Amino acid sequence: MTKPDEDKAVPGDADDVASRVETFLRTELPPKWVSAIDAGDAESLRAARAELDEARWWRRLGETGYAAPTWPQEYGGLGANRATAIAVSRMLTRYRVPNFSLGLIGLDLVGPAILRWGTDEQKRELLPAIVSREHIWCQLFSEPGAGSDLAGLSTRAVRDGDGWRITGQKVWSSFAHEATHGILLARTNPEVPKHDGITVFLIAMEQPGITVRPLRHIAGDVEFNEVFLDDATVSDAMRLGGLDDGWKITVSVLLNERQSASGSGGALPGTTTGRSVAALVRRHAPVADAVMRQRLAKAYIDDLLIQVTSRRAAARRKRGDGAGSEGSVLKVLSTEHAKELQDLAADLEGLGGQAWQQEDRFRDKTAWSLMRVQSKTISGGTSEIQRNILGERILGLPKEPGDDRNTPWGEVRRS
After folding, report:
1. What are the backbone dihedrals phi and psi of residue 43, each rounded to the nearest 5 degrees, phi first?
2. Residue from 224, 369, 345, 329 nearest 287 by CA
3. For the whole model, what pTM was predicted?
4. Using CB atoms within 10 A of its CB, is residue 121 exposed (0-12), middle (13-18) or buried (19+)?
5. What would the pLDDT profile of 145-170 be if each residue is shown by its tens digit?
6. Is 357 in contact with 351 (CB distance < 8 Å)?
7. How far apart are CA 343 and CA 372, in angstroms?
8. Domains and CATH numbers, the chain
């Protein structure tokens, strides 16, 4: 078994790191898992998943720093550059690292926010637990009356000694039914305009006063939730950033979410939800029908455009320029492309895209992907909101009319 300290020694060459990641995976994953990957045997891989001790696996992966390669070593990362991080990500994807998605909110959204805005104590306490998946995080942002207009949120935080009491409701919170912690937006000052009175908290989910109700989506799975907070408590030591200064943190998290959702945050080319362009070409080419052939060619071109834009965004971040407009551009392009691609995948199957033999897993998964992808243009910021952002911030168009931006939140009219 490789020693953790040896794992965290980062060579300069990304290919060397990728080779060491592969050695680790082939050593630590069950032999049946590795054999299934080598053989491309999906059925055997499913059987191997059922036998895996996930808690042990994630502890072991957390010791290596491979789960968060760009994070500093003292907080559970490798301290690696982006090129190395992409090489690590590719290798983890190749070996189908188990149940990685459950930790992505912590790794992609919460962790970067804590690294940027958190105290030293918060970093030491929370970041290693994200990497080892001891803590599972959810995002407590959207509300029934504050989705597209997130700054209009009404969940209240009231000071109580050394802590806060939180009351309100959140909705569409992915993985909240499995989360141990949540990054929460709450209104701490209703006497100022809506963007100015919001504070960010890092709250424990497993406590009295928090009720989670799962929501089953059209594909039949439970992923989203509504969350009710009734005098839930959080220490002021778990306040992220300054009091009433949470909107800038919120914006940084949303930018990371858009990049993650669009694939620009380290996802691999062609890996939008469901069927990829390459999979459709392998299964159906050459396509006899001229209309279908043209749709497949368009999907191929769109996929290349998204890859190029993603690389441009990565180059911008590498220069230290931070997240730019590419996040919103990619969010619109990639999510609408994903819906078109899954629609095409179902159409290429013909009648088999609507009815299939029970054992036909390709068609079953294709139908599931078609239903699952419908939410992609809504989650992480709707396409309409992304176009507003691009219109206002890039094209210089006037903001949408509204009379509440400079009005104290407590005086804003609400239904």
Report:
1. -65, -45
2. 345
3. 0.82
4. exposed
5. 888 789 999 999 999 999 999 999 99
6. no
7. 11
8. 16-131 (1.10.540.10), 137-245 (2.40.110.10), 263-381 (1.20.140)
